[in-house]
Amino acid sequence: MGNHYVPQYYLRGFSVAPMSDLIWVYRRGTEDVFKTAIHNIAQENNFYPDDMEKYLADEIEGPANAVLQKIQALKALTLEDKEVLSKYMMVLWKRVPEHKNWLKNKAPEIMNPVFERIDNELVELGKKYPEKMDLVERRRKELQELRTTKESDILHDIWLANMPADKTPQTLGVLSQMTWRFYTTREDEYFITSDNPLFFFRWMGIGKEQSEVTFPITQNIALWATWRIDIIEGYFPTLPQVAKEINRRTASIAHNYLYSPRSETWVGTLANKKTHRLNRIV
What we know:
The chain has nine helices and eleven strands. The protein is α+β, with helices and mostly antiparallel strands. The longest helix has 29 residues. The protein is elongated.
């Protein structure tokens, strides 16, 4: 078994029977639908080193599981609970393949200034010490070879280094200060989740007045976080259109897979849709 980038305890909230080990899996952009054991999904071999796996289990998942249990029991959360779950959600957002892929796509923006700065320093060194120009040129060539052969390793190290919660303290503080409302479903409705379940409008972030965050907690409960101050926190029955909007959001940002407690046509439709029309929740 590999390293789970979506925690198994979390995924059991979407299993075919309450907290069981079977779940339906939909592969995006294909007709693939299958039921499998949760320990088989959302994991890759050697995805994290052992010390990161231990950090995630002990410092992130362990404390958050107690908060998730409170939510499952429809209990009120304290500010400390919100801070613990904020840490869990933000680290989850950073640890999944979609975020790693985003980092890879940002590689030119991240890496170009670093390598250009080093190369410029070598050029200036060559000007200052002309007698060492041959050595400088060899080092410049080695620098380019390093980028060609080791860029993926460098990006992997950056991804790991920025994963811990204390690397984004401002974001955590912002998320925990939002108004949190939990929507609960009727018997004929349910929430799905994915291999990248934390939604916010990426172009907006979470700190602006219009920002929203949605996060499916279980198949029967989903979080909606907003900056609105005219509503109260707590647990409320969801309207059908709100449940559909949250599920569309979840599907829209999935990396490869959607996870569902049931096998139904509408989930497959979401999995195969290339674009999703998303709306704000009011």
